[in-house]
UniProtKB/TrEMBL annotation:
Organism: Paenibacillus durus
Origin: domain of life: Bacteria
The name this protein goes by in its record: Flavinylation-associated cytochrome domain-containing protein
Transmembrane segments: 7-25, 37-56, 77-100, 120-138, 158-176, 253-274
Pfam families hit by this protein: DUF4405
This protein's record includes keyword Transmembrane: yes
Length: 287
């Protein structure tokens, strides 16, 4: 089991990444039923992920304030905690606004939960990308062992560089076409911190204008989370369940995955090369 454990972890992480990407369009695989059930499944997968890494988590937690603990390890630990909290919030807020699994369940301001559910999901997407970037060496190592790939370091470096350039360019396009940065900035607005972008647009607290969520250009898959998320804005300014299944054709799930994996890849690439630069700088200082 110990020899297969890295492969199990990689497969579980990949499955969570694909599923989370699919959640950005609630018409995938039939609508809200898949969206809500898959969200709960991710919660179970997270608990499994923590269980598989429990020994590591205990070890680092006990050494968290140890001066000899590498800064990268402490950074990774903090990121994992933040990622866990954001995922918990996304799942919890999703249950609060549920229309299938917990139909009729109400808790507090549903409008706030629906908007914050979407906003924190965009933040979580970035955190997942950073998480992947910090563990990219492990991902590649396990993948090479799994596929029995053998190649020289020079050839591997060339292939990796070409692939990285292509993926990053594709990801940057997705970030631009989905207006991802604007949506990410709205996280502060949800929690009452009016961002500069929000101030320029004249957006009030909790209030997302239609340019942000309704009328912006569509991403690679032809739809956006905000356009197909099962909520439409009413004249009163609230969010309620929209006609998300009214005879519309289910979107191409591969396109949805590529769109949001592309966005993840941008943050993963930036993190990976930033970490690589930091390591080289550290070696140069200590040399």
């Amino acid at each position: 089991m110990n020899k297969k454990k890295p492969y199990v972890k990689l497969a579980l992480d990949a499955a969570m990444g694909v599923t989370f990407a699919l959640l950005f369009n609630t018409r995938v695989f039939g609508g809200l039923a898949f969206h809500e059930i898959a969200g709960i499944a991710i919660g179970i997968a997270i608990l499994t992920h923590i269980g598989l890494n429990l020994n590591f988590v205990k070890k680092i937690t006990l050494r968290l304030f140890d001066k000899n603990l590498p800064h990268k390890t402490r950074l990774s630990y903090g990121l994992n905690v933040l990622l866990l909290l954001s995922m918990i919030f996304v799942i919890f807020s999703g249950l609060v606004i549920s229309r299938v699994v917990l139909q009729g369940f109400q808790l507090g301001n549903e409008r706030w939960f629906s908007v914050s559910h979407m906003s924190i999901a965009y933040l979580t997407l970035a955190l997942i990308g950073v998480h992947i970037g910090l563990h990219w060496h492990w991902v590649m190592k396990v993948t090479q062992r799994l596929l029995h790939l053998k190649m020289s370091k020079a050839r591997a470096r060339i292939l990796m560089t070409c692939a990285a350039v292509f993926v990053l360019l594709f990801g940057v396009y997705q970030v631009y076409s989905t207006h991802y940065i604007s949506r990410l900035q709205m996280v502060g607005n949800v929690f009452g911190i009016l961002t500069a972008a929000a101030e320029e647009s004249g957006i009030e607290r909790y209030d997302f204008d239609e340019r942000t969520f309704n009328n912006e250009p569509a991403p690679f898959d032809g739809t956006g989370m905000d356009q197909e998320n099962g909520f439409e804005r009413r004249a009163m300014g609230g969010f309620s369940r929209g006609e998300h299944e009214g005879g519309r054709q289910s979107p191409n799930f591969i396109g949805v995955i590529l769109t949001y994996f592309g966005i993840m890849a941008v943050f993963a690439g930036i993190t990976y090369y930033a970490d690589k630069w930091a390591c080289r700088r550290k070696r140069a200082i200590t040399a």
